[in-house]
Amino acid sequence: KKDIPAANFIIHEIHCSRNIEVCSYCSESIPKSEMKNHIESEHVQVTCKCRMKMENGLLKDHEASACPLRPALCQFCDIPLTFNKLQDHEVYCGARTETCGGCGHNVMVKDLKEHPRVCG
Length: 120
Prior knowledge:
38% of the residues lie in helices and 20% in strands. The chain is an alpha+beta fold. The protein has three domains: 1-41, no CATH class; 44-69, no CATH class; 74-117, no CATH class. A two-stranded antiparallel sheet has the order 1-2. Strands 3-4 form a two-stranded antiparallel sheet. The longest helix has 12 residues, at 83-94. The mean pLDDT is 92. Keywords: Acetylation, Metal-binding, Phosphoprotein, Zinc, Zinc-finger.
């Protein structure tokens, strides 16, 4: 993926055809000596803990941003949960009440951040 001077192009083309191979899965240019390792490390099918199957090279991103079993913290109590349980927990957790130290009223946890604006 570099510019090759015209005088060197034929030698370069011969070198590449002997030493470089295009991966049939991702179309990346890979040295022939590393192709087996590339396929085993990037393209072998693996199963995530959520039972979804994908290429190994995609697993890390899936676990970080798409897996329903990825770790997540409740915004109200900081309890670690799995992402697929977070919404139901936060609905319940945010509906709890705490006594406001300023006005003495019971305020839902989900409203505590906004409460100081209306607190007497």
